[in-house]
Amino acid sequence: MALGLTIAAPSAGAQKLEQGVRGEHVLQLQEQLNELGYFKAGLTGYYGSITKGAVRKFQQAQGLSADGIAGPATLNRLNKKAAAQGNTLRQLAKLIHGEARGESFEGQVAVGAVVLNRVHSDVFPSSIPKVIFQKGQFTAIDDGQFNTKPTQTSYQAARKALNGTDPTHGALYYYNPKIATSLWSKSRPTLLTIGQHDFTR
Protein backbone atom coordinates (compact mmCIF):
# COMPACT_ATOMS: atom_id res chain seq x y z
CA MET A 1 0.00 0.00 0.00
CA ALA A 2 1.35 3.42 -0.91
CA LEU A 3 1.17 5.28 2.36
CA GLY A 4 -0.21 8.75 1.91
CA LEU A 5 -2.07 7.82 -1.24
CA THR A 6 -4.57 5.54 0.48
CA ILE A 7 -6.15 7.18 3.50
CA ALA A 8 -8.40 5.04 5.65
CA ALA A 9 -11.69 6.52 6.75
CA PRO A 10 -12.10 7.01 10.50
CA SER A 11 -14.57 4.11 10.81
CA ALA A 12 -11.95 1.75 9.41
CA GLY A 13 -9.59 2.31 12.32
CA ALA A 14 -11.77 3.78 15.04
CA GLN A 15 -15.03 2.37 16.37
CA LYS A 16 -15.74 5.33 18.63
CA LEU A 17 -14.35 8.85 18.97
CA GLU A 18 -15.31 11.02 21.92
CA GLN A 19 -14.24 14.02 23.96
CA GLY A 20 -10.69 13.77 25.29
CA VAL A 21 -9.39 11.59 22.46
CA ARG A 22 -6.66 12.82 20.10
CA GLY A 23 -5.03 11.52 16.94
CA GLU A 24 -5.26 10.94 13.22
CA HIS A 25 -8.89 9.79 13.26
CA VAL A 26 -10.05 12.85 15.18
CA LEU A 27 -8.23 15.05 12.68
CA GLN A 28 -10.01 13.29 9.82
CA LEU A 29 -13.35 13.68 11.61
CA GLN A 30 -12.73 17.42 11.94
CA GLU A 31 -11.82 17.70 8.26
CA GLN A 32 -15.00 15.94 7.18
CA LEU A 33 -17.21 17.98 9.52
CA ASN A 34 -15.49 21.12 8.25
CA GLU A 35 -16.16 20.14 4.65
CA LEU A 36 -19.85 19.69 5.48
CA GLY A 37 -20.04 23.03 7.30
CA TYR A 38 -20.46 21.75 10.85
CA PHE A 39 -16.96 22.43 12.18
CA LYS A 40 -15.70 26.02 12.04
CA ALA A 41 -12.69 25.84 14.37
CA GLY A 42 -9.04 24.99 13.79
CA LEU A 43 -7.99 21.48 12.73
CA THR A 44 -6.18 20.21 15.82
CA GLY A 45 -6.60 16.44 16.03
CA TYR A 46 -8.04 16.88 19.54
CA TYR A 47 -11.67 16.00 20.34
CA GLY A 48 -12.70 18.89 22.55
CA SER A 49 -16.04 20.55 23.28
CA ILE A 50 -16.16 22.28 19.87
CA THR A 51 -15.71 18.97 18.04
CA LYS A 52 -18.33 17.36 20.27
CA GLY A 53 -20.77 20.17 19.45
CA ALA A 54 -20.11 19.80 15.73
CA VAL A 55 -20.71 16.04 15.91
CA ARG A 56 -23.96 16.66 17.76
CA LYS A 57 -25.15 19.09 15.08
CA PHE A 58 -24.31 16.56 12.37
CA GLN A 59 -26.14 13.82 14.27
CA GLN A 60 -29.21 16.01 14.69
CA ALA A 61 -29.25 16.85 10.98
CA GLN A 62 -28.98 13.17 10.09
CA GLY A 63 -31.63 11.95 12.54
CA LEU A 64 -29.07 10.09 14.64
CA SER A 65 -28.83 9.94 18.43
CA ALA A 66 -27.31 13.34 19.22
CA ASP A 67 -24.88 12.46 22.01
CA GLY A 68 -21.80 14.16 20.52
CA ILE A 69 -19.96 10.83 20.38
CA ALA A 70 -18.80 9.64 16.97
CA GLY A 71 -19.67 5.96 17.14
CA PRO A 72 -19.97 3.51 14.23
CA ALA A 73 -23.36 4.79 12.99
CA THR A 74 -22.18 8.41 13.00
CA LEU A 75 -18.82 7.61 11.37
CA ASN A 76 -20.43 5.48 8.67
CA ARG A 77 -22.94 8.22 7.85
CA LEU A 78 -20.18 10.83 7.84
CA ASN A 79 -18.07 8.75 5.43
CA LYS A 80 -21.01 8.58 3.02
CA LYS A 81 -21.41 12.37 3.12
CA ALA A 82 -17.75 13.47 2.88
CA ALA A 83 -14.78 11.55 1.49
CA ALA A 84 -11.85 10.95 3.82
CA GLN A 85 -8.92 12.81 2.26
CA GLY A 86 -6.31 13.00 5.03
CA ASN A 87 -5.01 16.36 3.79
CA THR A 88 -3.83 17.69 7.15
CA LEU A 89 -2.02 14.47 8.09
CA ARG A 90 -0.31 14.66 4.70
CA GLN A 91 0.72 18.27 5.30
CA LEU A 92 2.21 17.38 8.69
CA ALA A 93 4.11 14.44 7.19
CA LYS A 94 5.42 16.67 4.38
CA LEU A 95 6.64 19.27 6.88
CA ILE A 96 8.37 16.60 8.98
CA HIS A 97 9.99 15.18 5.87
CA GLY A 98 11.11 18.60 4.65
CA GLU A 99 12.45 19.71 8.02
CA ALA A 100 13.84 16.49 9.53
CA ARG A 101 14.18 13.66 7.01
CA GLY A 102 17.84 13.18 7.98
CA GLU A 103 16.99 12.90 11.68
CA SER A 104 16.18 9.86 13.81
CA PHE A 105 12.56 8.78 14.18
CA GLU A 106 12.50 10.52 17.58
CA GLY A 107 13.81 13.69 15.93
CA GLN A 108 11.07 13.53 13.32
CA VAL A 109 8.37 13.03 15.95
CA ALA A 110 9.86 15.99 17.82
CA VAL A 111 9.35 18.30 14.82
CA GLY A 112 5.73 17.14 14.59
CA ALA A 113 5.32 17.72 18.31
CA VAL A 114 6.50 21.32 17.95
CA VAL A 115 3.70 21.90 15.43
CA LEU A 116 1.14 20.44 17.84
CA ASN A 117 2.56 22.42 20.75
CA ARG A 118 2.14 25.59 18.72
CA VAL A 119 -1.47 24.69 17.92
CA HIS A 120 -2.21 24.49 21.65
CA SER A 121 -0.26 27.67 22.47
CA ASP A 122 -1.88 31.11 22.67
CA VAL A 123 1.04 32.56 20.68
CA PHE A 124 0.36 30.68 17.43
CA PRO A 125 -2.67 29.86 15.26
CA SER A 126 -4.96 27.15 16.68
CA SER A 127 -4.92 25.01 13.54
CA ILE A 128 -2.32 22.58 12.18
CA PRO A 129 -2.39 23.91 8.58
CA LYS A 130 -2.22 27.53 9.76
CA VAL A 131 0.78 26.75 11.98
CA ILE A 132 2.54 24.94 9.15
CA PHE A 133 1.99 27.74 6.64
CA GLN A 134 2.51 30.68 9.00
CA LYS A 135 4.88 33.01 7.17
CA GLY A 136 8.56 32.72 7.95
CA GLN A 137 8.30 29.90 10.48
CA PHE A 138 9.60 26.80 8.71
CA THR A 139 12.54 26.61 6.31
CA ALA A 140 10.95 23.73 4.39
CA ILE A 141 8.03 25.97 3.41
CA ASP A 142 10.30 28.84 2.37
CA ASP A 143 12.78 26.80 0.29
CA GLY A 144 10.33 24.34 -1.27
CA GLN A 145 11.45 21.18 0.54
CA PHE A 146 7.87 20.89 1.79
CA ASN A 147 6.93 19.80 -1.72
CA THR A 148 9.11 16.68 -1.67
CA LYS A 149 7.29 13.36 -1.24
CA PRO A 150 7.09 12.27 2.41
CA THR A 151 8.20 8.78 3.42
CA GLN A 152 6.36 6.14 5.40
CA THR A 153 8.52 7.13 8.38
CA SER A 154 7.35 10.75 8.07
CA TYR A 155 3.73 9.58 8.21
CA GLN A 156 4.48 7.39 11.23
CA ALA A 157 6.12 10.32 12.98
CA ALA A 158 3.15 12.57 12.17
CA ARG A 159 0.71 10.01 13.60
CA LYS A 160 2.80 9.60 16.75
CA ALA A 161 2.87 13.37 17.33
CA LEU A 162 -0.87 13.59 16.70
CA ASN A 163 -1.41 10.87 19.30
CA GLY A 164 0.30 13.06 21.90
CA THR A 165 3.92 11.86 21.94
CA ASP A 166 6.23 14.81 22.63
CA PRO A 167 9.96 14.07 23.00
CA THR A 168 10.57 17.83 23.38
CA HIS A 169 8.54 18.30 26.57
CA GLY A 170 6.63 21.30 25.26
CA ALA A 171 9.09 23.00 22.87
CA LEU A 172 7.71 25.68 20.56
CA TYR A 173 10.84 26.21 18.47
CA TYR A 174 13.85 24.32 17.16
CA TYR A 175 16.92 25.15 15.10
CA ASN A 176 20.15 23.61 13.90
CA PRO A 177 22.93 25.42 15.83
CA LYS A 178 25.51 24.50 13.18
CA ILE A 179 23.77 26.47 10.43
CA ALA A 180 21.38 28.84 12.22
CA THR A 181 22.07 32.55 11.79
CA SER A 182 19.23 33.92 13.94
CA LEU A 183 20.54 35.45 17.15
CA TRP A 184 16.99 35.36 18.50
CA SER A 185 16.87 31.57 18.14
CA LYS A 186 20.25 31.13 19.77
CA SER A 187 19.31 33.39 22.68
CA ARG A 188 16.49 31.13 23.86
CA PRO A 189 17.24 28.55 26.58
CA THR A 190 17.64 25.06 25.12
CA LEU A 191 15.28 22.44 26.56
CA LEU A 192 17.12 19.53 24.94
CA THR A 193 18.97 18.48 21.82
CA ILE A 194 17.79 15.69 19.54
CA GLY A 195 20.10 14.93 16.64
CA GLN A 196 20.99 18.16 14.82
CA HIS A 197 18.20 20.23 16.40
CA ASP A 198 18.14 22.24 19.61
CA PHE A 199 14.59 22.58 20.95
CA THR A 200 13.54 25.70 22.83
CA ARG A 201 10.41 27.21 24.36
Name the features.
201 residues, mainly alpha, 10 helices, disordered N terminus
Could you provide a short overview of the structure?
It contains ten helices and three strands. With 201 residues, it is mostly helical.
Give an account of the 3D structure.
There is one protein chain. The protein is mainly α. It is 47% helix and 6% strand. Strands 1-3-2 form a three-stranded antiparallel sheet, covered by helices on one side. α5 (87-100) packs across α6 (105-119), α5 (87-100) packs across α9 and α6 (105-119) crosses α9 (152-162). The radius of gyration is 18 Å and the shape is elongated.
Unreliable sequence segments: 1-12
- Give the helix tally: 10
Structural class assignment: mainly alpha
Write the H/E string, N to C: HHHHHHHHHEHEE
The backbone outline, from C-alpha atoms, is: elongated
Strand order of the largest sheet: 1-3-2
What's the count of strands? 3
The helicity comes to 40-55%
Sheet with most strands: 3 strands, antiparallel
Summed over residues and divided by their number, the pLDDT gives a mean of 92
- Taking the alpha carbons of the first and last residues, their distance comes to 38 Å
Work out the strand percent.
5-15%
Global Rg: 18 Å
- Which assembly state applies to the chains in this document? single chain
